[in-house]
């Protein structure tokens, strides 16, 4: 499984995840809590500088915004007609900066470091019966299962084509789900054999 | 002492963990373009909400809920598990994050309704569960979040925009129901599991 992490040598890459998360949260509070044209303009400049410091290629930076562009466009268009161009620009700017800053954290942080954050975050819930080690195991197990499931869907699709069962989606999904459940049984037995239930 | 005991969550055993991981991976795999084409190749849809409906319908409330939570955590960790290879924290700052956050609740509701009828799986009830949990609950979280993030006034705009996804979601609910019905017959994972747990409960 290849993450979205972009390896580079920068202060942002070296900064501890906890600090980055705290700064991101603070930025969001200011961005949406205070708002206004001045805050949004400053935030926009800070974001561009942060991307430069993190040595993110500009193409990759812009690619982070592509999935949200149409939603932001719709929102900006709506505000353009209801409350004027300045408000539309502020709303669009807020959304763009928020997405760009959050994406920057992902680009500069390894998946393994984030997984350790989740493991740590699970600790206070131990009295409720949450086991941080099992949380970590479950997440790692799922990462391993993704290529497995992509493979299962591919195999079943090929089999379906070979049998000429063309158009019925049930002929793909049902066998795939049954295979997935069988895989889960085997995995469960393997985990139990390694003492997960002891 | 008895009070704190009651609030402890029952431990997930190895098979629970494996089923949660496999269904979380199924939801991710359904987001890979080309994994599922409906009606020949004329309507290419990425079917991740189909995976959410299947998780609730087949694994039940608890494990279905957790499978969706695992997907969300891995997306937050920076893996591109959402349709079109999207992922990372940027997703959580975007206006459509509510639909993603609605998944666990949706699976929970689907599973809760479905579990009322098992080991039987009446198609009408199954379909109703998938529509209520997989569509109504997911929209009920997604639309207000979208409206709030892009400013409160556009609530109507957000609601209208999401209507374009309704026909596809209804088709997915129908498919999930039919698949769940076949799977519960061919592989009574959830029903057998409940019976086994009940039996274990009787013994202790």
Descriptive tags:
heterodimer, A: 198 residues, B: 204 residues, mainly alpha, Arp2/3 complex 21 kDa subunit ARPC3, globular, disordered N terminus
- Average pLDDT taken over every residue of chain B: 82
Domain count of chain A: the total is 2
The percent range for helix content of chain A is over 70%
String of helices and strands of chain B:
HHEEHHHHHHHH
Continuous helix count of chain B? 10
Category from helices, strands and their pairing of chain A: mainly alpha
Specify the oligomeric state: heterodimer
Give the strand order of the largest sheet of chain B, numbering strands 1, 2, ... along the chain. Answer: 1-2
User: How are helices and strands ordered from N to C of chain A?
Assistant: HHHHHHHH
Describe it:
The complex is a heterodimer of chains A (198) and B (204). Chain A is mainly alpha-helical. Chain A has two domains: 11-109, no CATH class; 128-193, no CATH class. Chain A contains eight helices and no strands. Chain A has helices at 11-14, 17-34, 36-53, 58-83, 85-107, 111-122, 132-163, 170-193. In chain A, helix 4 runs antiparallel to helix 5 (85-107) and helix 6 (111-122) crosses helix 7. Chain A is extended, with a radius of gyration of 23 Å. Chain A starts with 10 loop residues before the first helix and ends in a 5-residue tail after the last helix. Chain B is globular, with a radius of gyration of 18 Å. In chain B, a hairpin with a 4-residue loop joins strand 1 (37-38) and strand 2 (43-44). A two-stranded antiparallel sheet of chain B has the order 1-2. Chain B is mainly alpha-helical. Chain B has a single domain (2-203), classed as Arp2/3 complex 21 kDa subunit ARPC3. Chain B is built from ten helices and two strands. Chains A and B meet through helix 4, helix 5, helix 6, helix 7 and helix 8 of A and helix 2, helix 3, helix 4, helix 5 and helix 9 of B.
């Amino acid at each position: 499984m290849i993450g979205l992490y972009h390896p580079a040598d920068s202060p942002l890459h070296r900064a501890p995840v906890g600090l980055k998360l705290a700064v991101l949260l603070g930025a969001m509070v200011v961005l949406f809590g205070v708002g206004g044209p001045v805050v949004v303009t400053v935030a926009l400049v800070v974001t561009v500088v942060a991307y430069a410091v993190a040595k993110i290629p500009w193409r990759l930076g812009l690619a982070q915004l592509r999935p949200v562009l149409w939603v932001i466009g719709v929102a900006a268009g709506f505000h353009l007609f209801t409350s004027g161009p300045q408000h539309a620009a502020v709303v669009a700017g807020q959304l763009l900066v928020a997405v760009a800053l959050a994406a920057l954290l992902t680009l500069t942080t390894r998946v393994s470091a984030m997984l350790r954050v989740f493991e740590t975050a699970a600790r206070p819930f131990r009295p409720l019966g949450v086991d941080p080690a099992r949380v970590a195991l479950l997440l790692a197990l799922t990462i391993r299962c993704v290529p497995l499931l992509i493979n299962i869907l591919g195999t079943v699709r090929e089999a379906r084509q070979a049998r000429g069962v063309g158009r019925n989606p049930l002929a793909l999904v049902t066998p795939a789900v049954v295979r997935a459940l069988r895989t889960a049984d085997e995995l469960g037995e393997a985990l139990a054999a390694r003492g997960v239930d002891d | 002492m008895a009070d704190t005991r009651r609030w402890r969550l029952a431990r997930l055993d190895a098979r629970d963990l494996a089923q949660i991981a496999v269904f979380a991976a199924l939801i991710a795999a359904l987001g890979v373009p080309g994994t599922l084409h409906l009606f020949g190749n004329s309507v290419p849809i990425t079917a991740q909400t189909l995976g959410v409906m299947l998780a609730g319908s087949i694994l039940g409330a608890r494990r279905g809920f957790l499978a969706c939570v695992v997907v969300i955590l891995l997306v937050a960790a920076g893996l591109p598990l959402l349709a079109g290879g999207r992922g990372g924290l940027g997703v959580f700052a975007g206006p459509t994050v509510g639909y993603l956050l609605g998944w666990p609740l949706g699976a929970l509701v689907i599973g809760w309704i479905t579990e009322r009828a098992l080991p039987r799986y009446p198609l009408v009830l199954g379909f109703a569960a998938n529509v209520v949990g997989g569509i109504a609950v997911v929209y009920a979280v997604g639309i207000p979040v979208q409206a709030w993030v892009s400013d409160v006034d556009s609530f109507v705009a957000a609601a209208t925009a999401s209507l374009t996804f309704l026909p596809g979601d209804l088709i997915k609910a129908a498919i999930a129901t039919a698949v769940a019905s076949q799977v519960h017959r061919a592989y009574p994972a959830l029903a057998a599991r409940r019976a086994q747990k009940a039996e274990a409960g009787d013994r202790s």
